[in-house]
Amino acid sequence: MRTFQVVLGVAFGVLVFLFLDYVLPSRDTVRITNTYNKLTDVGWNRIFYAAADTGTVENIQGQRDIRFIDTVRPNGRPLVYRNEDTGTIWPPYFKYDSSNLHAIAGDRKSTSADPEWVNITSYGWRISFLSIYPNAISIRSVAGPADNPANWPAMVILGVLGALLFLFWRMWNQFRERSIDPMMSRADRALDRADARMDSARDRVAAQTRQARGRFSGWLGSWRGKPRR
């Protein structure tokens, strides 16, 4: 049982980490190389794209017209973003300016010979073989490839979540000390009294059994004759 609880706790912790890693904003300093629209097949991986009610155009074949932003990291590795509105449901970024963001991204395009570095705030993962892309939220210019602004939004959100978790932990401890622990103590005392009564009853039954056996043995002895001399 203890092993099962540990495994369950670890699995829950991993799920929480993956959830936060996906929905929290991240920041990357990149160079924009291209912006375009593309009809993209959206199937089983639909949960990683914007909801259908955010104004996204989708045909009857399940293809969605999605804006993309091609970028290159300072180390030369590519990173492709999608650019979709999030709406008001999930995740709660309230992004409605994907058209404006696309115009900004197109205006920031540059080449390796004359680079212009920007910092893109996004959420989500880039998994190439699953056709999953992070969703760009905002773009801001930076001085150079080594300029990595602090990710204050994520730190603030994690701080608030940590404070709420600590508050919940304190409330749970107080509830346990005031309600659960006394109830468990009363239950333990009741079990101890029940065990004591059972032990006492068992001792009385054993004593009565011995007495009955002794009386029976005495009764049998009274029917025996005296030994011959």
Task: Report on the architecture of this protein.
It is a single chain. The protein is elongated. It is of the alpha+beta class and 229 residues long. The model has no long low-confidence stretch (mean pLDDT 85). It has three helices and five strands. The protein is 45% helix and 20% strand.
Structural class: alpha+beta
Strand order of the largest sheet: 3-2-1-4-5
> How would the global form be characterised?
elongated
Number of helices: 3
Provide a brief overview of the structure.
This protein is 45% helix and 20% strand. It has three helices and five strands, in the order H-E-E-E-H-E-E-H.
Name a few traits of the molecule.
alpha+beta; 5 strands; elongated; single chain
Layout: helices, strands, pairs:
Blueprint: H1 2-23, E1 26-41, E2 63-72, E3 78-83, H2 98-107, E4 117-123, E5 135-141, H3 152-222
Antiparallel strand pairs: 1-2, 1-4, 2-3, 4-5
